[in-house]
């Protein structure tokens, strides 16, 4: 299985964005994160085009920067006209530094610190998503001190069961994020916020989870939220005018994955929003989405060098690479499955089944088990696909392993967008 922008050249090497993966390793070393710029841009364009086509362009797509947050990545999505969502001051700092217009930034977090709220409001971010009742007063106070009226959305738990890993399921009542509908707390919070002068209650937000393959839970969530907006209007006379449906669209990690195309999702959800608004006599809200994984996931590949190979008869074959849980903790966290191949034998048949292990001092440090792959020899380059989202952004320095470099490739050209960490970087903050 190969993904968009990938191919096999005459040398039987994997190519990414027109670049020979072996040449990339020679030039930049391993492990190496590779991001295909054209794939990222195509995904951004498809989102934008779908909103134009199915919702008259009455919306904005925010890249969920937690998926991959560095200056060049943000510059790319910014140049495609997307906004960005940030869930910490660090993400906000990066997004601002990359030149994003603060009006196109949306702030999240279930426990934003006072400093984070102040930083965001002072920088005139477009929207803050209120996640807890205690934030209402704080936002109003900081907005007043800065002489502005701050637009806010309310994060709602629509009570939807999205079929995904429980750690990344966020729409149900037992969840640390947002306000539940069933208990009346969402309504109470909104009514309370309407009393404050320096807050503009723009609308509601939900994010039901991540790596979701069906469109049904998204449609259901949109329906629930529109009806909630209508209920608030009936009760208070106040009509909210913005609807943020979060992210969560699944992507292909292995052949088993069959994600819905997000333009199809946008078509279906737009129809639901229009239908429900007509039924309840609401003006069509400005719609927002916050995809992360589906923008950058499949655009990324990690290249490793194979080292020790331990074939334990009757048990399994361990192929160890020069990275692991430090650059990709998703197997150890979620048992996430990946596709691997030997980049220097890319066109060969996959005749082996191996466990891909990292180099950390931890038995659980694996990148995958039962992975079909070509015959591997020590020194081969192993490519793991779909590592663009939540890999670099979740990387660590466990065992004092420096984080790999990241290169962006495009039409056969490559450039470093994040430098490889040095040992000096590792001790930079040590006293
Ligand atoms: N909006 C909000 C409020 C979110 O919490 C998230 C993801 C997104 C948007 C973007 O979701 P996406 O389109 O990327 O699915 N570390 C996990 C994923 C955690 C997602 C957290 N929130 C993983 O590696 O699978």
Task: Provide keyphrases for this structure.
alpha/beta; 2 domains; nine-stranded mixed β-sheet; binds ligand LLP
Layout of helices and strands:
Layout: E1 6-8, E2 14-16, E3 19-20, H1 21-28, E4 32-36, H2 37-55, E5 59-64, H3 71-79, E6 83-86, H4 89-97, E7 105-107, H5 114-122, E8 127-130, H6 134-145, E9 150-157, E10 179-180, H7 185-193, E11 199-205, H8 216-236, E12 242-244, H9 262-280, E13 286-289, H10 293-296, E14 300-312, E15 316-321, H11 330-334, E16 340-342, E17 352-357, E18 366-373, E19 381-385, E20 405-410, E21 413-418, H12 423-426
Parallel strand pairs: 4-20, 5-6, 5-13, 6-7, 7-8, 8-9, 9-10, 9-11, 11-12, 12-13, 15-17
Antiparallel strand pairs: 1-2, 2-3, 4-14, 14-15, 14-19, 16-19, 17-18, 20-21
Helix pairs in contact: 2-9, 5-6, 8-9
Ligand LLP binds next to helix 10 and helix 11.
Describe the structure.
The strands form 3 sheets. Strands 4, 14, 15, 16, 17, 18, 19, 20 and 21 form a 9-stranded mixed β-sheet that branches. The protein has an 8-stranded parallel β-barrel with strand order 5-6-7-8-9-11-12-13, surrounded by 6 helices. 30% of the residues lie in helices and 25% in strands. It folds into 2 domains: 6-30 and 299-427, Lyase, Ornithine Decarboxylase, Chain A, domain 1 (Beta Barrel); 37-296, Alpha-Beta Barrel (TIM Barrel), CATH 3.20.20. The mean pLDDT is 96. It has helices spanning 21-28, 37-55, 71-79, 89-97, 114-122, 134-145, 185-193, 216-236, 262-280, 293-296, 330-334, 423-426; strands at 6-8, 14-16, 19-20, 32-36, 59-64, 83-86, 105-107, 127-130, 150-157, 179-180, 199-205, 242-244, 286-289, 300-312, 316-321, 340-342, 352-357, 366-373, 381-385, 405-410, 413-418. It has 12 helices and 21 strands. It is of the alpha/beta class. Helix 5 (114-122) packs across helix 6. The termini are far apart. The structure holds ligand LLP. Ligand LLP is lined by residues 64, 67, 85, 108, 168, 207, 210-211, 246-249, 290-294, 330, 334, 389-390, 394.
């Amino acid at each position: 299985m190969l993904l968009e922008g990938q191919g096999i050249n005459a040398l039987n090497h994997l190519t990414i964005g027109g670049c020979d993966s072996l040449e990339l390793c020679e030039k930049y070393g391993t492990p190496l994160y590779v991001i295909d710029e054209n794939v990222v841009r195509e995904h951004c364009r498809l989102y934008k085009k779908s909103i134009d086509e199915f919702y008259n362009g009455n919306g904005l797509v925010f890249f969920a920067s937690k998926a991959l947050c560095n200056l060049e990545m943000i510059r790319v999505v910014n140049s495609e006209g997307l906004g960005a969502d940030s869930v910490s001051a660090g993400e906000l700092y990066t997004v601002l530094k990359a030149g994003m217009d603060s009006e196109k930034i949306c702030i999240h977090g279930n426990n934003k610190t006072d400093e984070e709220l102040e930083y965001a409001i002072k920088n005139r971010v477009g929207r803050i998503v209120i996640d807890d009742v205690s934030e209402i007063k704080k936002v109003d106070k900081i907005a007043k001190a800065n002489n502005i009226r701050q637009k806010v959305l309310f994060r709602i738990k629509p009570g939807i069961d999205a079929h995904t890993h429980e750690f990344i399921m966020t729409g149900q009542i037992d969840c640390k994020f947002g306000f539940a509908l069933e208990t009346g707390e969402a309504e109470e919070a909104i009514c309370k916020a309407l009393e404050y002068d320096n807050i503009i209650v723009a609308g509601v937000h939900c994010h039901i989870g991540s790596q979701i393959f069906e469109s049904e839970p998204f449609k259901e969530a949109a329906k629930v939220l529109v009806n909630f907006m209508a209920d608030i209007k009936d009760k208070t006379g106040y009509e909210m005018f913005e609807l943020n449906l979060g992210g969560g669209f699944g992507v292909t990690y292995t052949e088993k994955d069959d994600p819905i195309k997000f333009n199809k999702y946008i078509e279906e959800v737009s129809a639901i929003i229009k239908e429900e608004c007509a039924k309840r006599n609401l003006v069509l809200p400005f719609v927002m989405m916050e995809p992360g994984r589906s923008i950058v996931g499949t655009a990324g590949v990690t290249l490793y060098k194979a080292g020790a190979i331990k074939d334990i008869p009757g048990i399994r074959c361990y192929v160890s690479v020069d990275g692991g849980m430090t650059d990709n903790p998703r197997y150890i966290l979620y048992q996430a499955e990946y596709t691997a191949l030997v980049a220097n034998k890319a066109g060969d048949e996959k005749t082996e089944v191996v466990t891909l292990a990292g180099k950390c001092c931890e038995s659980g440090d694996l990148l995958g088990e039962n992975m079909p792959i070509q015959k591997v020899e020590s020194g081969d380059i192993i490519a793991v696909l779909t590592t663009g989202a939540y890999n670099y952004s979740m990387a660590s320095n466990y065992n004092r392993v420096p984080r790999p470099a990241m290169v962006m490739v495009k039409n056969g050209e490559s450039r470093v967008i994040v430098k490889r960490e040095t040992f000096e970087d590792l001790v930079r903050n040590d006293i």
